[in-house]
Structure to design on (758 residues):
């Protein structure tokens, strides 16, 4: 890979209420903060009102709701004037079809069917007849509401084209002559004949494996690259692609010097395929960064608490299997049917394919690489369903063949099953310790040791030095500082057990597992408004699907849920107790936050700062983590720090801004200091409370398990062995020398330190 990597990026959720010209006004602040590149949410024209941009409807233009081409030009000029670059988020897997007339390729397919010049743009199974569009109300008479107006069929506010020469007769007669069939919206999960993004019927799968489709959907983005507007590309959801390796080869050929990172979610221990890219978007780093601040010795306490609260013993593996199988046979049943149709001679093919997907240990394989994952799935599926062994053997013989259509589509299927089954379901059911319920993490792994962290960091430097590191994204389940504070619970398992058992009795919920999740989130994000916690509780309950769901909301359960949350705010004694407990874990949570931020910014890779997280960020899952950011307040704090203010570790979060700005500036100004990696071990009674490493001229030191450290009576005789040079600690501008440096002296002001060799 060319050495084109940024020194640090800053993710901005460019959206209609924060468009490109407003983003351009941030550039001077981002330059002062120390990043080298602004990293933007998708910028192509998306569906009306889209707040995220992942539902592109027109690949040929910048979204006018964001400011259009003029807005992008204004941002580009501002970035160049400040010496910054641009990384753009692109969406090759799918396109938005919720408003058909705004997507010219989809509209033409609806109008002309297989004769459309764009019929090959989307992954449509025309062998099953007309293109099914699930938009009708759940009523046998829904088609009676169709209208024929202005050469279109209209169903309430939805518009559909009429094929040439088919417009005579009643609206129903006209409808029956079209290349599409409007059907009950509930049939979307079971009878659809176009590939979707996960289970979202408004996002249709693209065929970017076709060179013509690739060229059409990437022309505008690649123009930005050629003209120097964008220097980096972040690729969304490569697991949905038919041929990821081929796609990345084509993208690299078209953008040979671009920094390319991919949203590939790696399970612990899984390696990124050898694609011609610079690395992943950093979920694997996030898992380790949070885990190293968790006390792994208390796992048994949380197992016991979980059994006591729920009354059941369920392993993470069994829960994941159950959730994935339900997804494969439920909301992804249409995709399962399409797979099974490719194996008509295999008895019980649907159940066997669903079982294999439920047992698949990673998101997907990339044949021929990853065939061992299929072997693991076959073994586990046979153990769980012995009666399906014959079908499993017949199917796996084909699923090993990279050229078999069944194998190609199965690889696309398993990623969707994993994402929907684990991220959007099991994470909300397995609630023993939700600090670890994060994308790219395995909640069954309670934490990570410093040695595991060092081993992964060394591997990253050797194999993927240009890979992104992250602590928060628009897809994370909890903000980085929520997770950091929740990690403190592992140090006070007895205290947590006492209060949460009392709270659950005082404010009961029919689903105690969900209740445990909400109580953890409440103390992790406190102080949090009633409205935000209510919105989170409703989303969490519907994702869990135990007491209520998105498809069939249970009003009685949701009423009980609202009453539980309301009681936190309406009962003075409970409110005070929750606030007091949150206050007790907040200072050690700050220590964890600063520690994980320092490690993320200094470890091998390209660090990304998600918008706003240079101060404390206690956001929850989207849309909560897309809330507006007070950039004016951040500017003012950064100016004070630059004027010499040494901020305390307190509620302002300015200490985190100090850490972020000083490390980011150093990485941008002196990249040669970050070329190697060597673990540094503290010696002494409290040595295991430090995690440190030398990057080749910079030594980062962070405190871990701060409550346990205080029980030791602080650092005592613990020291770091240095090489005898003089060092400057960046955050306090203090000089140190000698071969041994007392940690108590180094970490007197902050729980973190960054030493630069003079």
């Amino acid at each position: 890979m060319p050495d084109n990597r940024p020194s640090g990026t800053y993710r901005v959720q460019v959206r209609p209420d924060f468009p490109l010209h407003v983003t351009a006004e941030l550039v001077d602040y981002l330059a002062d903060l120390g990043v080298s590149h602004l990293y933007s949410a998708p910028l192509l024209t998306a569906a009306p009102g889209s707040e995220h941009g992942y539902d592109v409807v027109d690949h040929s233009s910048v979204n006018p709701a964001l400011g259009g081409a003029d807005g992008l030009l204004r941002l580009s000029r501002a970035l160049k004037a400040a010496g910054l670059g641009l990384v753009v988020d692109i969406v090759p897997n799918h396109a938005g079809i919720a408003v058909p007339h705004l997507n010219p390729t989809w509209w033409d397919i609806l109008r002309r069917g297989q004769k459309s010049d764009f019929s090959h743009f989307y992954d449509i199974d025309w062998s099953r007849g007309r293109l099914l569009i699930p938009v009708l109300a759940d009523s046998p008479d829904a088609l009676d509401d169709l209208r024929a107006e202005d050469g279109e069929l209209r169903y309430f506010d939805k518009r559909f084209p009429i094929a040439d020469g088919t417009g005579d007769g009643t609206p129903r007669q006209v409808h029956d002559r079209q290349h599409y069939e409007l059907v009950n919206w509930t049939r979307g999960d079971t009878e659809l004949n176009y590939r979707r993004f996960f289970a979202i019927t408004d996002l249709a799968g693209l065929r970017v494996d076709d060179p013509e489709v690739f060229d059409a959907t990437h022309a505008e983005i690649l123009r930005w690259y050629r003209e120097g507007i964008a220097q980096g590309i972040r690729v969304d959801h490569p697991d949905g692609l038919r041929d990821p390796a081929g796609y990345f080869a084509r993208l690299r050929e078209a953008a040979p010097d671009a920094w390319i990172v991919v949203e590939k979610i790696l399970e612990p221990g899984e390696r990124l395929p050898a694609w011609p890219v610079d690395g992943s978007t950093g979920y694997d780093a996030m898992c380790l960064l949070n885990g190293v601040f968790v006390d792994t010795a208390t796992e048994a306490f949380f197992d016991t608490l979980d059994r006591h609260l729920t009354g059941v013993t369920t392993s993470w593996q069994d829960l994941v299997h159950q959730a994935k199988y339900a997804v494969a046979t439920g909301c992804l049943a249409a995709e399962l049917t399409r797979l099974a149709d490719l194996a008509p001679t295999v008895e019980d093919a649907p159940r066997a394919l669903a079982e294999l997907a439920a047992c698949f240990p990673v998101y997907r394989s990339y044949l021929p690489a990853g065939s061992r994952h299929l072997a693991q799935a076959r073994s586990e599926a046979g153990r769980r369903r012995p009666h399906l062994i014959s079908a499993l053997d017949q199917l796996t013989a084909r699923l090993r063949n990279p050229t078999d259509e069944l194998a190609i589509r199965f690889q696309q299927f398993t990623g969707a099953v994993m994402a929907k089954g684990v991220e959007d379901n099991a994470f909300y059911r397995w609630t023993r310790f939700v600090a670890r319920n994060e994308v790219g993490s395995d909640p069954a792994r309670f934490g990570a040791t410093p040695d595991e962290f060092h081993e992964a960091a060394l591997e990253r430097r050797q194999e993927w030095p240009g890979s992104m590191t992250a602590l928060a994204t628009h897809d994370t389940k909890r903000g980085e500082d929520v997770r950091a504070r929740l990690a403190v619970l592992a140090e006070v398992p007895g205290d947590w057990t006492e209060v949460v058992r009392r709270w659950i009795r005082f404010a009961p919920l029919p689903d105690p597992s969900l209740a445990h999740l909400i109580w953890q989130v409440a103390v992790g994000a406190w102080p949090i408004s009633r409205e935000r916690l209510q919105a989170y509780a409703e989303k969490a309950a519907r994702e869990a699907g135990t007491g209520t769901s998105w498809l069939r909301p249970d009003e009685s359960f949701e009423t009980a849920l609202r009453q539980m949350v309301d009681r936190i705010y309406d009962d003075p004694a409970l409110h005070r107790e929750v606030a007091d407990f949150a206050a007790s874990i907040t200072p050690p949570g700050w220590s964890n936050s600063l520690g994980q931020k320092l490690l993320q910014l200094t470890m091998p890779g390209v660090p990304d700062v998600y918008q706003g997280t240079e101060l404390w960020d206690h956001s929850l899952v989207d849309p909560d983590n897309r809330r507006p950011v007070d950039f004016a307040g951040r500017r003012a704090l950064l100016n004070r720090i630059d004027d010499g203010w040494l901020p305390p570790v307190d509620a302002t979060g300015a200490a985190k801004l100090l850490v972020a700005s000083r490390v980011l500036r150093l990485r941008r100004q002196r990249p040669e200091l970050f070329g190697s990696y060597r673990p540094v071990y503290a010696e002494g009674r409290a040595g295991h409370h430090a995690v440190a490493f030398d990057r080749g001229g910079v030594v980062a030191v962070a405190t871990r398990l701060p409550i346990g450290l205080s029980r030791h009576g602080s650092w005592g005789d613990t020291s770091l062995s240095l090489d005898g040079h003089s060092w400057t600690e960046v955050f306090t501008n203090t000089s140190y020398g000698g071969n041994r440096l007392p940690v108590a002296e180094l970490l007197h002001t902050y729980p973190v330190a960054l030493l630069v060799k003079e």
